[in-house]
Write a structure and sequence with these properties.
single chain, 3-stranded antiparallel beta sheet, 16 helices, 3% strand
Amino acid sequence: MSESPAKPAYSPGLDGVIAGESAICSVQADTGLHYYGYGIEGIADQITFEQVAWLLLHGEMPNPAELKEFARQLAAGAALPPAIVQMLKCFPKGTRAMDYLRTGISALSAFDPDLGHVDHAANLRKTIRLISRMTSVTTAGWRVLHGQEPIVTGDMPLSARLLMGISGQKPEEWVVRVMDTVMNLYAEHEFNASTFAARVTASTLADIYPAIVTALGALEGPLHGGANERAMTMLRNVGLAKNAEPWVKAALAKREKIMGFGHRVYKKGDSRVPVMRQLLAEICRRKGDNTLLEVCQELERVMEKEKGLFANLDLYAAPVLNLLEIPPELNTPLFACARVAGWCAHVIEQQDHNRIIRPRSLYTGPAPRSM
């Protein structure tokens, strides 16, 4: 009797599957997160977002002249075409920030002189515009939908421009430093869902714009970038540290997902969390109120005890952004403003060494049959 053919290997959600090669970033359960070999805990709060973006695109830290020119190019690309601003004004009130951001970035492709060129040099030029204008669309759309005129200025670093574009006020230096650190922590994270989605699109030799729009769509979900917004809602619901344990137990009894915990790769803790936790502690000291820090720390204790799960970056990013007076609705777009540097680096790497990404599925339908 002939043996049945062996069932092909299958890993739901591609858990643990190696789907490609990359020199950009390493995420390991035991050694943590590295950008081109630099451990995130050693660079996140030491350098600017512009330096991290350059590193992700070029593989090395910029020298002073390179950094100055890169910052100049980012500033020069900040302004939005008037037609894009007019388009943002056409959205109905209540439009979600990720919806106008995704649509705005797609529309910007029509104004890019390099559209359709997928060579390395053209991709780098488009990347500079995308990094700069992701922030511009995020802030301009937010202000327009709240009855205010956009503020898009290129005469300051990107993190400062992001903050001023939301509040209308020039931020203090320490706030810019905090925002740089947040952006650096979110800038890249290997083959996460949005990055992999971008690489799949790029592997068809589509332009970088549709690849980034694909990534934005994947980022929006609450199991990915949308988690930081949900985490802030959770912290507000908990309220005080003394409420954390009964709140968690009640949520677990209802089989609800606790936002800000667990990770596909990190099993003993997200290597980005200590930096973000320290940021939150610093801001709480400045504000004279440790409530959010105490709630997060108690949630960590309870979740480790109850489920053996550790905090991920979103648990601490949410209160940090909240204390910087960033509206929670902008948490995920801000994530995109940082991660676009990593997305673009991956698109460039994919197209420089391209093979179309075309996996197989395990068929579970009916056996062959006749009418």
